[in-house]
Amino acid sequence: MKEHENDDIKRIAELICRLLAQSLAERGEQPIGYGFTIIAGNPDSRDGGACERCGNTEPRRRIIEPRIEIHPCEDQIHVTAEVAGAEGQECRYAVRKQCLHLAVPAGDRVYQASVSLPPVEEEPVRVTCRHGVLEVVLKASHGEKESSP
Predict the structure, then answer these.
(1) How far apart are the first and last CA of the chain?
(2) pLDDT tens for residues 28-77?
(3) How far apart are CA 27 and CA 143, in angstroms?
(4) How far apart, in whole angstroms, are the C-alpha atoms of residue 134 and residue 127?
(5) At 13, phi and psi to the nearest 5?
(6) Domain boundaries defined on the chain
(7) What angle do CA 119, 124, 127 make, to 5 degrees?
(8) Positions of E strands within 37-97
(9) How do strand 99-106 and strand 109-116 relate by DSSP bridges?
(10) CATH number belonging to domain 61-140
(11) Beta-carbon neighbour count of residue 43 at 10 Å?
(12) Cβ atoms 70, 115 nearer than 8 A
């Protein structure tokens, strides 16, 4: 990339940040980040972004943060994530300390996210991944843990 192109990108990024800060300040709101994509290497290259010079000869996968929604429903918490191209068995997830961690491979992409949850039991009631939608259903916890002697 030429130096003047890099300067233009920096100016555009600074302008976006300034406009966002001004808009949020006028409304008294806090900024919120939503979704991003990280691409390491050149994803358009024939070798899928492999870089022998860096010692990586494996094609690289794009890491994408999926759109996630959390819906409380009676005594359960339903978490859905958009994971286009993913199906069933390859989904990896864990619930630890009120946080759901996801890693879902889908072809040349990996959807990864961690999302804070309301109080839930750590064992899911049901996990499904069909038609590019991951659904994790967890039992809501109301903080009523029995203490052991």
Answers:
(1) 66
(2) 766 555 444 444 455 555 545 555 555 555 556 688 888 899 998 889 99
(3) 36
(4) 7
(5) -60, -45
(6) 61-140
(7) 130
(8) 37-38, 62-64, 68-73, 76-82, 92-96
(9) antiparallel
(10) 2.60.40.790
(11) 15
(12) yes
DSSP 11: H
113: Cβ–Cβ under 8 A, 6 or more apart, which residues?
65, 66, 68, 81, 100, 101, 102
pLDDT at 147: 44
Record the pTM.
0.58
Where residue 44 falls (left for φ over 0; alpha for ψ -120 to 50; beta otherwise) is: alpha
Whose CA is closest to 138, among 78, 93, 57, 85? 78
Q: What's the distance, CA 110 to chain centroid?
A: 9
